[in-house]
Amino acid sequence: DARVTQTPRDKVTEMGQEVTMRCQPILGHNTVFWYRQTMMQGLELLAYFRNRAPLDDSGMPKDRFSAEMPDATLATLKIQPSEPRDSAVYFCASGLARTSGHPGLDTQYFGPGTRLTVL
Amino acid sequence: DQQVKQNSPSLSVQEGRISILNCDYTNSMFDYFLWYKKYPAEGPTFLISISSIKDKNEDGRFTVFLNKSAKHLSLHIVPSQPGDSAVYFCASGSARQLTFGSGTQLTVLP
After folding, report:
1. 3-state SS class at A100
2. Which of A33, A42, A91 sits opposite B101 (nearest CB)?
3. What 8-state DSSP symbol labels residue B41?
4. How far apart are CA A93 and CA A50, in angstroms?
5. pLDDT exceeds 90 at position B40
6. A104–B93: do the CB atoms touch at under 8 Å?
7. A56/B97 touch (CB, cutoff 8 Å), yes or no
8. End-to-end CA distance of chain B
9. Which region among A63-72, A93-102, B43-52, B76-85 has the lowest average model confidence (pLDDT)?
10. According to the model, what pLDDT value does residue B63 have?
11. pLDDT digits (tens, 9 = 90+) for A39-78
12. Cβ B34–A102 below 8 Å, yes or no?
């Protein structure tokens, strides 16, 4: 039963600290998405990778957030320095892109999320 | 400026009846639409999708309707079951982006 895994599941940290969230996409998938869920905004797309290359990170605050895929089995989302307004649940999703690379066409499989609390 | 809106944060329906979840979008470039279901402490799971060339797509108890002129999307669940109780997100996509609504909590009462 292939699943997207995310670590840690819960993270509590203090303002100003660096936070790293990790995601292991489903083996064989070539797209990875990072989302943030808050009560006010719902699910926001932060970044979208295809074949490990970032295709769209326009939803991500550039000054403090960074997303990478060091290899095909690991995606990371870092926040440095973290702020209380970053408190949210962060979801990673993976999928198998069609030739068009259309993110809306890709069925995405979501991980369980990382609940981040920045004090 | 939310491009995808789910104006009802919650909906309660009796078991066996129809559940209708609604979604409005503003971007006419969106050409693909999806519904996801989310249980507490889990990630969303894909439910059903529709492309802009269609106005209806059916999968078992779930039917998605698309009204392009009104920029309106709806999900019908018939008959509703207690296990359908979850948060439902609609999402709209184009070649460059995928945008989610804020979700509707559906509660199916036994």
Report:
1. coil
2. A42
3. T
4. 12
5. no
6. yes
7. yes
8. 38
9. A93-102
10. 98
11. 777 788 899 898 898 888 888 888 999 999 999 999 999 9
12. no
**Closest CA of chain B from A47, distance in Å:** 10
Q: B52 phi and psi, to 5 degrees? A: -70, -10
Task: Look up residue B49 and give its two tokens.
Answer: 């999708």
The CA distance from A26 to A92, in Å, is 11
Chain B hits for A100, CB-CB cut-off 8 Å, are 95
**What number of other Cβ atoms are within 10 A of residue A110's Cβ?**
23
Chosen from B98, B99, B100 to mutate, greatest number of chain A CBs within 10 A: B98
Alpha-carbon gap, residue B53 to B57, rounded angstroms: 11
Using the Cβ of B91 and the Cβ atoms of chain A, whether some distance falls under 8 Å is answered with: yes
Contact A57, A67 (CB under 8 A): yes
Q: Do A42 and B102 touch (CB under 8 A)?
A: yes
Residue B5 · residue B23 · CB < 8 Å: yes
Residues B15-39 have pLDDT tens digits of 999 999 999 999 888 888 999 999 9
Residue B94 has pLDDT above 80, yes or no: no
Residue A89 has pLDDT above 70, yes or no: yes
What is the rounded average pLDDT of the residues B72-91? 96
What tokens does B103 get? 């979700």
Q: Are the beta carbons of A42 and B100 separated by less than 8 Å?
A: yes
